[in-house]
Amino acid sequence: MSFTPAGAAAVGLALALAACRAPGPPAGRGADAASAPPRVLIESPSGRVSAVAVELARGEAQLARGLMFRERLGPDEGMLFVFPDTAVHAFWMKNTLIPLDMIFIDEGKTVVGIVERAEPHSTAPRTPGRPSRYVLEVNGGWSAAHGVAAGDRVTFEGDAARD
């Protein structure tokens, strides 16, 4: 998974600006929360909660590489892209070997759109066209199998909670 050239340039600029912030966990969060395994919980209006164990993509290199070259992803595993700023993010599937669902999440931790079953190796930009701050990538078909939809609420646990 990688960004389109325009998206990569925007991320580069945003990352340069974000580098001026002091590192460390946000105020009010203890060391235990930051050391727990990162997970994303998605809650539907019916109360159903789906959990995904995630790898985090935060730095420029991680954001650009994503899940490229991976041959498999566990059934409830994924990657959470944490962008420094809210924007309309677009992804492509060049060098990505497995179909993926991309769940776009806004600053308020609400699902704003889903790209389902993105085709491997495609350079077509994938986006719901709505601003997001986070993107959760999971196996293709995971969103439909778990009933995930726009409007669902999201909670981050462990290191994923540190933006």
UniProtKB/TrEMBL annotation:
Transmembrane segments annotated in the record for this chain: none
Ranges in coiled-coil conformation: none
Signal peptide limits: none
Pfam families on file: DUF192
The name this protein goes by in its record: DUF192 domain-containing protein
